[in-house]
Design a protein that fits this description.
Elements lengths: L1 H15 L6 H11 L2 H13 L4 H21 L5 H21 L3 H18 L1 H22 L4 H13 L10 H12 L10 H14 L3 H17 L3 H4 L25 H17 L6 H17 L1
Helix pairs in contact: 2-3, 2-4, 3-4, 4-5, 4-6, 5-6, 6-7, 7-8, 8-9, 9-10, 10-13, 13-14
């Protein structure tokens, strides 16, 4: 099946290199096939023949996305290689913004800065965390970017950073952002197994019992309802429907389980999601193995 998809991909590239830019085709190469080399080849050729600044901007942020993903594939010890790819990703995103400011470019710029900082170390990550957050908030609040990737980045950022007075980290905001990320998945863009795993880990670490969850989530509902700015509102998304909410991966309400029970449930649901795909990508197979190992560990 994978060989057939690769052959189809090659044929499509040959037929589309001279045609007008097709963003859906780039997204297909990137998300469905994870063929980053083919996507880069297609985007590079499309950039040369882009007819408008808007079209070129859309190509450039996709090149940013591609460079970041290729950097992630490099060995962790190859720091110079990773730096180069993340800096390339940042440059593409900045060029996209210079031609036509847009939410996707701001998101990938934020992501590139984050990856660069993570590779450099804790101090660099801390020094650029505010910049990274601000680009995501710009995408969300100025462009209405209610997008799974943006919420995921904020969920990671708020979870990993220390809290006040050192930085702006907040474990509860992180969980709310991660819940929103999970519930804004885009069909056709993979299984999103990482989202289930990350939310599971954050809930396991918080470790509220059912009684405390009920009380705290109902408090969050009041803050959720009184906020109008999208990014601020979603800091309390866990309380959007109160503690009586039944998540799509559960048969019981949030009030009827502890954080750690929900953490295990998320991993079991991710396992079930993985098994629905007949021919999973190598990255999905690897992530599924991590999830099964983690599930065994916590149960």
């Amino acid at each position: 099946m994978k060989k057939l998809l690769a052959l189809i991909s090659a044929a499509l590239i040959a037929s589309t290199l001279s045609a007008a830019f097709n963003p859906e085709y780039s997204d297909y190469l990137f998300y469905t096939l994870e063929d980053f080399d083919a996507d880069e080849e297609y985007l590079t050729a499309a950039e040369e023949s882009a007819a408008t600044d808007e079209e070129k901007s859309a190509i450039l942020w996709r090149l940013s996305r591609n460079s970041l993903s290729q950097g992630d594939l490099l060995d962790e010890d190859d720091k110079d290689g990773r730096f180069a790819m993340y800096e390339e990703s940042q440059a593409y995103a900045e060029e996209s913004i210079s031609l036509m400011p847009n939410a996707d470019a701001y998101h990938w710029l934020s992501s590139a800065i984050g990856r660069w900082g993570q590779t450099k170390g804790v101090l660099e990550s801390l020094s650029r965390a505010g910049e990274m957050r601000d680009y995501e908030l710009k995408a969300i609040d100025e462009y209405g970017y209610d997008h799974t990737d943006a919420w995921y980045v904020l969920g990671i950022l708020y979870n990993q950073l220390p809290g006040w007075p050192i930085s702006f980290g907040n474990k509860n905001y992180a969980i709310s952002y991660m819940r929103r990320s999970l519930e804004t998945q885009i069909a056709g863009r993979g299984l999103f197994l990482t989202l289930y795993q990350e939310l599971s880990n954050q809930l396991y670490d918080r470790n509220w019992d059912a009684k405390k969850r009920t009380s705290e989530i109902n408090k969050m509902q009041k803050d959720y309802e009184k906020n109008d700015v999208l990014s601020e509102k979603m800091k309390y998304y866990e309380g959007a429907e109160g503690a009586s909410k039944v998540p799509f991966y559960s048969t019981v309400a949030l009030s009827q389980m502890s954080d750690r029970q929900e953490a295990a449930m998320l991993l079991m649901y991710a396992d079930a999601v993985f098994k629905t795909k007949a021919d999973p990508l190598p990255s999905e197979v690897a992530k599924h193995s991590e999830i099964l190992a983690r599930l065994e560990e916590i149960t």
